[in-house]
Amino acid sequence: MRFRTEARVGLRDVAYGLYERRLASALQRAGAPVPKHVGVILDGNRRWARATGQRNVTDGHQRGADKIADLLAWCDEAGVELVTLWLLSTDNLSRPAAELEPLLRIIEAVVTDLAQPQNRWTLNVVGALDLLPDSSGRILKEAAAGTAGRPGVEVNVAIGYGGRREIADAVRSMLQAHAAAGATLEEVAEFLDVEHIAEHLYTRGQPDPDLVIRTSGEQRLGGFLLWQSAHSEFYFCEAYWPDFRRVDFLRALRAYAARQRRFGT
Fold first, then answer.
1. Strand ranges, E, within the chain
2. Phi-psi sector, 216: left (phi>0), alpha (psi -120 to 50), beta
3. Domain extents for the chain?
4. 256 with 210: CB under 8 angstroms?
5. Contacts of 35 (CB under 8 A, 6+ apart)
6. Which positions ≥6 away from 10 have C-beta within 8 Å?
7. pLDDT value at position 23?
8. What are the Cα distances from residue 50, in Å, to 57, 63, 100, 108, 113?
9. Annotated catalytic residue, options 13, 59, 76, 92
């Protein structure tokens, strides 16, 4: 019985490998458009842990963290230029300390690992870092600071991130900047527009996401890049994040290539 099970798993892996190579070749032959900026909601770590009988949800978070380097390698290979990864929301910060503290250690470790010299990625930490413990904020900032100018994909690591909080912070930052320059509230209201707010977002200066992927079967943004995703394409994958495979990523690219982007028109 065990031999038969292993044989079935082996055949399934071979079939997936063949399908993956065929899908990648088809996208390349077709000259399919590639999204420049991909946002990814890495969802389902805790449910994966429960579904696979792990000891606690921290095992799911660790397995999910181990998957991130694979995703960035796939993005590099596909020609994606910018990736935004949602690792920790502002809502997650209210979780019990028994779960939150190990999760923060995992996030610190994965960002530190991604920042190692052998990797190609430029890291930006985005979010309300003032909501994190001082030590966590310092570790994340120091790790990202040493990656500037690398040749691979640029990576926004969204930690302590919430879309509503980002917009509120952007408006606050804009008002403070103009107040410091001596402008009155009436003068600010006179020229307030979308572009002025966008200049103060965490992702200022970057293109909006072309494609947003969410794993685990949930079909909602949950506050991810609320401002920036107004014209994004969305792809919802049933797999929990720790089970997300290259073939799932290629399917997302195929779905994106098949869509006719209208940008609200």
1. 37-41, 82-89, 122-126, 154-161, 211-214, 233-236
2. left
3. 1-31, 35-258
4. yes
5. 80, 209, 210, 211, 233, 253, 256
6. none
7. 83
8. 7, 13, 17, 24, 26
9. 92
CATH number 3.40.140.80 is the correct assignment for the domain at 35-258 = no
CA distance 243 to 139: 28
- Separation of alpha carbons 70 and 74, rounded Å: 6
> If 0-12 CB within 10 Å is exposed, 13-18 middle and 19+ buried, where does residue 198 land?
middle
Dist. CA 124–CA 137, nearest whole Å: 12
Give the span between the Cα atoms of 63 and 47, in whole angstroms: 12
Indicate the SS3 state at residue 226: coil
Q: How far is CA 89 from CA 59, 86, 99, 172, 231, in A?
A: 19, 7, 14, 20, 22
Is there a catalytic annotation at residue 43?
Answer: yes
Helix residue ranges per DSSP H, 82-152: 97-114, 134-145
- State the 10-residue block means of pLDDT for the chain, 265 residues long: 57 78 83 94 96 93 97 96 97 93 97 96 96 96 95 97 97 93 90 92 97 97 96 97 97 94 72
Tokens for 72, please give them: 């960035």
- Amino acid identity of residue 223, one-letter, is G
Beta-carbon contacts of residue 28 (< 8 Å; ≥ 6 apart): none
CA dihedral 131, 84, 111, 93 (to 10 degrees): 30
Is 70 noted as a catalytic residue in this protein?
no
